[in-house]
Amino acid sequence: MDVADLLAEEACSCLLHGCDVKDKKYQSNKGHDVILNKIVALYFTSNWCEPCHTFTRVLSQTYQLVEKRASEIVVINVPIESDLDKARYCFKTMPDTWYTISHDNQHVKVLISKFNIQIVPKLVVCKGDGSVITYRGRSEVESKLALAVYNWLDAAKPKPATKQVINGFEIDDVPVEETANDK
Questions:
Q1: 147-168 residue pLDDT tens
Q2: Which of 33, 39, 96, 168 is deepest in the core (most CB within 10 A)?
Q3: Number of structural domains found in the chain
Q4: What CATH number did the domain enclosing 91 receive?
Q5: Domain encompassing residue 157
Q6: What is the pLDDT of residue 83?
Q7: Is this model's pTM higher than 0.85 or not?
Q8: DSSP 8-state symbol, 78
Q9: Does 102 have pLDDT greater than 90?
């Protein structure tokens, strides 16, 4: 894991464990409760950005394509707007199941900085523990649609434990040496 990944993981963790997110009614929810056991898609966007409007539609349609698995994913809008009305207007165009961070929340600046957001739209996909699955969520959705989401779901699954092999024996199969007391 390089420094950028560590900073990103720290940023996700900070957001997810110490930040309130707003639902479509603009009611506050604890970030931790919203993302518990889910994949988190951090969607950096802005109202003035036409590519953002286009990608919002593509991402919304993709989200609908994976309807049966959509409950395993939470999309959190991270507005880069400085104007509350514009940020809220942009969020209103998004699906009802998505969340947003208030535009003036200190975590927005942290996320923008830690993920080095220089252009929007940008979609960063993380596991619920804050580890990053991909920084290229936008290009993956645009090229693969629902397959991108299924790939993220697979990447978030716990990996099966591997057995260590020592001198041809799996670690669980290593014979125990007999002692004099065992004879």
A1: 999 999 999 888 776 666 666 6
A2: 39
A3: 1
A4: 3.40.30.10
A5: 3-182
A6: 84
A7: no
A8: E
A9: no
